[in-house]
Amino acid sequence: xxxxxxxxxxxxxxxxxxxxxxxxxxxxxxxxxxxxxxxxxxxxxxxxxxxxxxxxxxxxxxxxxxxxxxxxxxxxxxxxxxxxxxxxxxxxxxxxxxxxxxxxxxxxxxxxxxxxxxxxxxxxxxxxxxxxxxxxxxxxxxxxxxxxxxxxxxxxxxxxxxxxxxxxxxxxxxxxxx
Length: 178
Hints:
By secondary structure, this protein is mainly beta. The protein has a single domain, classed as Immunoglobulin-like (Sandwich). 10% of the residues lie in helices and 56% in strands. It has 1 helix and 11 strands; from the N terminus they run H-E-E-E-E-E-E-E-E-E-E-E. Strands 1, 2, 3, 4, 5, 6, 7, 8, 9, 10 and 11 form an 11-stranded mixed sheet that branches. A hairpin with a 4-residue loop joins strand 6 (88-95) and strand 7. It starts with a helix and ends in a 15-residue tail after the last strand.
């Protein structure tokens, strides 16, 4: 009788543990990063900055928050990248006064999890007429697999330099005299 009681307890504990959510799955090589790491934009121009992912395994959804210096640049356009299927996309929250972008994307059945790397987010930033360097920081990157298990990435930030037009994208040709 006593042996049957302990076997029942062990069986209940094992069955209960099957229904528990997964812990964070740290993927050693998984990186979410700003590309290019250092970009330039003219005072009244715009530049495309992307948030990319590399070396991920079985990504199914992500929740990103990106910050920038609102005194130097403003987000003109934010669009989903091509890495995941755009099955469920919450409209991005762009707060140019605070310098915050929030974006959530998830796939749904029958989409399969994605592995490898690609573009998660495209951000077009415009210069606001003030010279300076704006950090582009990934302040939140919550990634998950199809079962809702967390994928913990390494985060790599970038920056956008706002420069005067006179210094931006000028090509100087040699002077040839005869």
